[in-house]
Amino acid sequence: GDMEIYSFEARTAISRPISPTEAFTMLPVIQYKGTRVNFRDTPLGFPIEDEDVHAISLSSFFLYRSPGSKWLYGGWARAELATDFQHINSDDLTFDVVAGVGYEFTPNLTFGLGISTINLNNDEDFYVGPAFDWKINDCWRVGTLGPNAVATYSPNEDWEFSLRGDASGDEWNIRDAAGESMTLDLDMYRVGLYADRRLTGDLWLRVGAGVTLLNEIETKTPDGDTFYKDDLDEGWFGEITLRLKVW
Fold it and tell me: Does 155 score more than 90 pLDDT?
């Protein structure tokens, strides 16, 4: 059978960066993502139906760096409601925490290491990964953040082209045909080419397309017991984004 995913996402910072001290900065963010998952030509008895699912989250980024120090410490925490809105309870809520440390070897080169804990209150996952950011010159920049990697080329102040690899996918709590609480987990890795164009002032348009790899679909209980799991073939994706810098 086939699976198609359509999603709409809106995200904004709630305020300017907040600095309680000279060394400490935090940035609160609110985000909504609506997703439509369609299945076609699936075999008889396939356990997942078409789904409309939603995710609403509040998160915050944290950065600590003493003046004059080359060490920097970062973090991110999120509380998210991910649901089909059929019935909401604690299984629809998830909490994620990320922490990392970095060292600035030069103003253009920083290396770091991070650890993340995902889905704290249900079936937890733990990840450890490296990070680095290297501004090669005024046009080229490369970096990684855990499994995500990017190489960008900016020929001038109005254009940016990039090659990106992103660990993608989402997890929601849904109700199955019997009305039982079930977690729907979609995982994929997206590799794509993107072009960013300044439309006017601080308003940017991005278009991108590429291939999805390592695709997997799974349904499981909130405690992590697998009900259904299958690997999926490679697929294609397209993306259109508007970005506005507001301060």
Answer: yes
Residue 14 tokens read as 């709630």
How far CA 25 is from CA of 76, 98, 140, 240, in Å, comes to 12, 16, 28, 31
Compare 91 and 196 and report the one with higher pLDDT.
196
Q: CA-to-CA distance for 17 and 6, rounded, in angstroms?
A: 32
Whole-angstrom Cα Rg for the chain: 20
As a whole number of angstroms, the distance between CA 49 and CA 76 comes to 34
The identity of residue 185, as a single letter, is: D
CA 86/CA 242 separation, integer angstroms: 31
Which residues lie closer than 8 Å to 190 by C-beta, 6 or more apart?
Answer: 164, 165, 166, 168, 210, 211, 212, 213, 237
Over residues 49-76, mean pLDDT: 94
Reported as a single tens digit per residue, the pLDDT across 42-61 is 888 777 788 899 999 999 99
Mean pLDDT of 204-218: 94
Q: What are the pLDDT digits (tens) for 79-112?
A: 999 999 888 888 888 899 999 999 999 999 999 9
SS3 assignment, position 224:
coil
The C-alpha atoms of residue 67 and residue 110 are separated, in whole angstroms, by 16
By CB atoms closer than 10 A (0-12, 13-18, 19+), residue 172 is buried
Q: On the CB side of 103, how many CA atoms lie within 13 Å of its CA?
A: 2
Measured distance CA(60)–CA(14) in Å, rounded: 10
Worst-scoring range by mean pLDDT, 83-97, 166-180, 198-212? 166-180
Farthest CA pair distance, the chain = 64
